[in-house]
Amino acid sequence: MATYTSRNPARFDDIVTEVPLATSAEVLAACQTAHAAQAAWAAIPAPLRGRVIAQVGRLFESNKESLAHLVTREMGKVYAEALGDVQEVIDTCDFFLGEGRRLYGQTVPSEMPDKQLFTFRMPVGTAMIITAGNFPAAVPSWYIVPALVTGNTIVWKPAEQTAAIAQAMAEIFYAGGVPREVLQVVIADGPATYDGLEAALDSKLVQKIGFTGSTEVGRRLSELAGRHLQSPCLELGGKNPMVVMPDAAIDLVVEGALFAGFGTAGQRCTSLGTLWVHRDVYDVVRERYVHAVQNAIIGDPRQPVLYGPMIDEKYLTTHDKHLGLIQDHQSVYGSSGVGRITSHNPRAGFLGDPDAGWFAHPTIVDGIRPGDALYDTETFGPLVTMGVFDTLDEAIELSNGHGYGLSSAIYTSDPQAVWRFRQGISAGMVSVNNSTSGAEAHLPFGGNGLSGNGSRQSGIWVLDQFTRWQSMNWDYSGKLQKAQMDVIELPYDPGFHL
């Protein structure tokens, strides 16, 4: 039996858990279990399902600190960010506990007498949810909580790198009242997950796919879903622009770009991709930003640092490949080295033992332009590119040109610039004088183009992913009334004039 060993990415000698990896047959079996349980779960009145979510939220609240410590230990996120990761689960539960009493349909007037029209939200059935390891608590909750409230059952495949976090979260859901057969958790690698899901779709056991991860994998899952006439919920990669206008508050720009670019070691789908700066303030912004990055504290995520390690070696290896895309006309800033931080490739002011974990130097690549390899490559790591523009229209074109459309930001005090940017940017999310990173549980989260298929997580908008509309017409006239044919026509005089 194949197993996966989850290690603390900041301390290789700390084994967090060792879990057996599910086979494709076991993934299929989990789908069968969840599918068989769906009708009974949907039969529980929605307000009671909402009450279960309320109970789950209170348990996450009482276990917030212990779960956050586990997040820090297993995937390396600094403790303050880990607390925020768990808090998003609590916020999501707080929001959706009320949706159990607000799954509104509509009562619609008919064109016929003695007839009434209705609409209802119905659960889609069983959902396969596949999530990444960078937000191991928050992002799964964006799928799981609304799916449960709306009467669906779930097979959840978390990232192997965060297996212990997933198991802990599942136990909280079970303790809160969610039956185990309703929420199935499978730890599996990519091939077993895909093959098991394909078999489950062929057997009509899964009616919805939810996926957060790379654009490449999202394409494969979208193609698979399309063969079964399903529309998946996809939240994919980003190349998130931050546009700095001449009137921007520079201190705020530097603070926002530091957090957006290097929080969680740049391992967010909403991490800053390119800092586009107006020519009039380019030199001063670059100087201030480089100084801030050079002086940021990096290291042990249990300490007060900007960021800790990469999630695991795979992420560091990918980061190194992206560093290989730097071209001769570009300049590199940000640290005393590039690539992995070690005692032989040190980072000034590093806090902790660099050889004990997967730590990476923060890197700023200056001189980016369209056509460069880094212009349209998502760099999932501590790497930010910088480029110059002369007009807002040019900045919008540069921000859209790579085809990603997840998150974006503009720094300015000019409301006209804000509005023109919002109208022109392809991103699903826009921030004004704020970071590209950050989400609230009651606001739609998701992207367009290479960043997703227009589906959204969070808020009331995610309900459209986990419900299907059902219409009903009720004719109590006692006779057949044919639509568009038996409609009463009230007389009028088309030639009337005063």
Question: Which labels suit this protein?
Answer:
Aldehyde Dehydrogenase, Chain A, domain 1, 2 domains, 5-stranded parallel sheet, Aldehyde Dehydrogenase, Chain A, domain 2, globular, 498 residues, 36% helix, alpha/beta, 19 strands, 7-stranded mixed sheet
CATH architecture of the largest domain: 3-Layer(aba) Sandwich
Mean pLDDT across all residues, rounded? 96
Give the low-confidence spans: none
The CATH topology label of the largest domain is: Aldehyde Dehydrogenase, Chain A, domain 1
Number of domains: 2
Strand line-up in the sheet with most strands: 12-13-14-11-10-16-17
Question: Which sheet architecture does the biggest sheet show?
Answer: 7 strands, mixed
Give the total of beta strands: 19
Radius of gyration: 25 Å
